[in-house]
Design a protein that fits this description.
single chain; 171 residues; alpha/beta; 7-stranded mixed β-sheet; 26% helix
Length: 171
């Protein structure tokens, strides 16, 4: 995993070991390696420890990290801080992972992963993952470089420093 360009990291949002093929299909469609948080490896034994990211695991620097069902506790974020681009999917809008993510989708990984896999297999390109999914409303946000670093004012109503992706902001 250390030299991988793309990683798909799964967290406790995955409810059963039997659901791992859903995430593996997404990783394969993305050309990524599968990684996990400590609980999935150490506590549940669903994936080997070599796949664990965080303070007790690997600290890779992929070009893309897709984080699914990961809350973003500090023990995990220490391991992903070197990622160039982080896309986070979590059903909890206040999950700490969104503070680190470049793009965020507030949604259930069981709905997002299959849709993203299908879109990737169709080879859709050019928009953030949330646009590939056809997400609308308040579920898709992107960090805005145009937002004031001091005030964090967003140019679109949403979390501070985030906005709906648009051509005017380059996202």
């Amino acid at each position: 995993l250390a030299g991988s360009e793309r990683l798909v990291c799964i967290g406790r949002g995955l409810e059963r070991a039997e659901d791992l093929p859903l995430i593996q299909e997404l990783a394969e469609a993305l050309g990524a390696e599968l990684a996990c948080t400590r609980p999935l490896s150490y506590e549940y034994g669903w994936l080997p420890e070599e796949r664990m990211l965080g303070i007790s695991g690997l600290r890779p620097s992929p070009r893309l990290l897709l984080s699914l069902g990961v809350s973003g506790q500090v023990q995990h974020t220490v391991g992903i801080i070197g990622s160039k681009l982080i896309v986070a999917v979590n059903r909890d809008a206040s999950a700490p992972i969104f503070k680190l993510a470049d793009y965020g989708i507030v949604g259930d990984l069981y709905q997002v992963a299959p849709r993203l896999t299908a879109r990737l297999l169709e080879r859709s390109k050019g928009w953030p993952a949330c646009h590939l999914l056809g997400a609308g409303g308040d579920s898709c946000w992107a960090r805005c470089p145009a937002a004031s670093p001091v005030s964090g004012r967003a140019i679109w109503p949403g979390p501070a420093g985030w906005h709906r992706p648009s051509p005017t902001c380059g996202t």
